[in-house]
Model the fold of this input.
Amino acid sequence: MNTPRPVGALLAEAAATLAEAGIEAPAREARLLLLHAIGRPATALLDRAEPIHAPALAPLVARRAAREPMALILGRQGFWTLDLEVSPDTLIPRADSEAIVEAALAAAPAPRRVLDLGTGTGCLLLAVLSERPGAWGLGIDLSPDAAALAARNARSTGLAARATFLAADWSAPLSNAARFDLVLSNPPYIPTPDLAGLMPEVLAHEPPRALDGGPDGLAAYRHIIATLPTLLAPGGVAVLEVGIGQAAEVEALARAMGLPHLATRLDLAGIPRAVVLAARDPMA
Done:
């Protein structure tokens, strides 16, 4: 239909479609989709009586009703104080992961060199760099597309001069001389048998390699923790995101490698989310 329609009618129709599809907060999401369809910022005010022409709205609503994540439809996601580009090549940054940034800032008040393993959008590394102007960081991701996206986010946030991104298998390209004051990682931690029970937004639209943590969800932690003694500089710390119920197991893996457990930080829901480990004492 090419005839302009009142904003209120468009919003009501979109919200009804989203509600029928089981979307939480359908009115809020309908508003975001309408603003995106007509090219206005998400903070813009809408006059419900205003007649507008919005032919792009219906396809956007259909995508969201099919459970495509809102962030992928909009192409952007807020994280920490940053506005980041997202794509199907990476996990969508989540508010839970801000606990890793908080823990890192508390544990490493003045890092010079920061490493982010499995960087995805670059959200963890870029958030830390935004708060630590004296730091330089390296983000590594197995996916070349993810590494390229993280580099674009570094440019758009004004952090490109202090961030480098590589496509590689974990820390494989780093020499034994490469040492970091802070190592960050949000590795895949969903046990393989649990993948089928994930929400459709996650299971169908986020990369399986960034979700599948192996039979017990700990495969990536075993690899990362085994490499930390050669990655951490003296006095350095590592901050790892963990899934529900995994903090104690990850702490045990670290103890077996001689890495002291410094702290575990809760996310906004009160779930242990960030495990903070210290470099091994060379005198021990």
